[in-house]
Amino acid sequence: MTLIQQFNRELAAQHLLTPTKTVVVAVSTGVDSMVLLDLLLRVPVQQRPQLVVAHVNHHLRAQSTEEAAFLTEYCASRPVTLKVADWLAADHPATGIEAAGRQFRYDFFASVLTDTQAAAILTAHHANDQAETYLMKLARGGDLAQLRGIQASRPFATGQLVRPLLPFAKQQLRQYATERQLTYYEDVTNSDVTLTRNRLRQRVVPELMRVNPEFLPHIAAYEQQLTTLLNAKAQMVATLLPQVQVGQQLVLKRLLKLPSQWRLAVFQGWLQQRGQQLISETKLGPSFHWALQSESRTTRMQLNATLELVKVAGMVDVLPVKKRVKKLRPIEKIMVDLNQWQKITATQSVGVFNTAPTGTSQPFPLLTSDLPLCLRPWQPGDDLTLKNGGRQLIRRILIDQKVPAAERAGAMVLVTAHGTVLWLVGHKFSYRDPNMAKSQTVFLALKHTELKGVHLKR
Length: 458
Prior knowledge:
3 domains, alpha+beta, six-stranded mixed β-sheet, about 450 residues, Rossmann fold, cytoplasm, EC 6.3.4.19, Rossmann-like_a/b/a_fold, Chorismate Mutase Domain, subunit A
């Protein structure tokens, strides 16, 4: 069977070998996509789908403008409808440019697919791409299901994403391009071996093909076997799920009656059904073991940022995580009377005195204009004056003194009538010149029923 015959068979398998359908062809002007476009143009007119070429000028290389101009002339001479999008340099991110470029590309393809009411978009992924993808996933690790490679077809936007060149090796495509004398452009970044995929492409895959020339067909065969295996597993899980549920809840005794090798898979299937999220079996290990533990009381375990498991009387359910709205302490001011203790917590009392009530009382110069003094919870923007004349935020003081995050919100400050903070209670005082004019010395005191751990810091 020739390459053209096999290619047409791939189109027929996807029900695209008909002039009644429109397909969008993603063309970069590289050898793979130019071969794809040429093969489509060689399909007999009475069978060829209506073609729309989609091209993205990424403005990443000097020759990208030349490539866009070439493709414009190429399509005009056929004639074939051409849709072009420009990803301008001003829109390029500082990091993650490869992922951002792919996102821009596929967003554009989706819009063209929708606008033209096309049945599918065709890309030029081939057998070498499949092998590289497999090797990258093997190196990354994870569940067996995550080892699935590039699919020949999958849903995309309003149609399908189809890869009709997937059975063909890169060498076959290059040989075809040479025989047909096709014009194409090489992307110089493909030779950059600092990129993982390029290292696999240039070093690993060729070496494996020297070990066994049938390496690429073997990868394709593994992909087919894995797809069959995972489909069979999904069918079995769908059969077993009703046996372990009451309503939507999972009954643990029934789960434990299943063969041990199916329990985790059924647990995963149930979670996916209930939470509409696929979580890998590897990550589910701790949750699965928690679920199987026998407990009489109601227990909860957070599954991820949005879902939690709740176990009651041998049954487990999935519920959305309740948004725990932090209850803000009301910003109420507590007026401070001189020479009186003011209780601020169950164990702490604060006061401002003319004479020192305790040995740890802090002498402090006070102005008449400071009165009345108030106690309140600290607020963002509150700060203290330092001896060198600088300012230090209350937030920074609490962090520097390693006050637990949960306790920081409850810290209190002593403030003047103008809102100036004089004291972060229990932690640090604002600096004032003890000899400042028109001031009187008072004593700031903290009394704690449990003196352990209380320190007044200058």
